[in-house]
Amino acid sequence: MAEGGSVTLEELRKKLEDFGRVRNWEQHHTPRNLVLALVGEVGELAEIFQWKGEVARGIPDWEEEEKQHLGEELSDVLLYLVRLSDMCGVDLGKAALRKIKLNGIKYPAPVSDVENHEGSNSGVKEEQL
User: Fold this and answer.
1) Phi and psi at residue 113, to the nearest 5°
2) What is the pLDDT of residues 56-74, one digit of tens each?
3) Which of 21, 22, 57, 85 ranks highest by number of CB atoms within 10 Å?
4) Nearest-angstrom CA–CA distance, 40 and 83
5) According to the model, what pLDDT value does residue 126 have?
6) Residue 4, pLDDT score
7) CB pairs under 8 A, 24+ apart, for 44-50?
8) Cβ atoms 74, 45 nearer than 8 A
9) Which intervals hold domain NTP pyrophosphohydrolase MazG-like (predicted)?
10) SS (H, E, C) the chain
11) What are the tens digits of pLDDT across the range 14-62?
């Protein structure tokens, strides 16, 4: 992983596995314990937004310290989710792509919206999912 570059779910999974193993935490990383810890972290994330009302995209009015705290709580949620998926034998990336595809079937885009976005540079076409 290059400094400042993208990180894959697999890299996170491996780092978490190593982190837990060297601390002998694997015995505590049961699916039940991990999901309960995940819920606790989601609560901490929600607490950040609890009294802020609606927040603008990009959180432009937030202080740098608040943004850093948000990043830490988002990271806690992500890390517990990655560890939980690993302990359950679920390939989270594949499961997420499958879920997006299923949601596309369940909630098809209106024809006018599809036509408006065909020229977008998102790089991902629905049939690729």
Assistant:
1) -70, -40
2) 999 999 999 999 999 999 9
3) 85
4) 15
5) 54
6) 74
7) 44/73, 44/76, 45/70, 45/73, 45/74, 45/76, 45/77, 48/73
8) yes
9) 30-96
10) CCCCCCCCHHHHHHHHHHHHHHCCCHHHCCHHHHHHHHHHHHHHHHHHHCCCCCCCCCCCCCCHHHHHHHHHHHHHHHHHHHHHHHHCCCCHHHHHHHHHHHHHHHCCCCHHHHHHHCCCCCCCCHHHC
11) 999 999 999 999 999 999 999 999 999 999 999 999 999 999 999 999 9
Rg (CA), the chain: 18
Alpha carbons 129 and 124: distance in angstroms, whole number: 8
Q: Quote the CA–CA distance of 66 and 55 in Å, as a whole number.
A: 13
Maximum pairwise Cα distance, the chain? 55
Of 71, 70, 76, nearest in space to 37 by CA: 76
For residue range 68-106, list pLDDT tens digits in order.
Answer: 999 999 999 999 999 999 999 999 999 999 999 999 999
pTM for the whole structure: 0.81
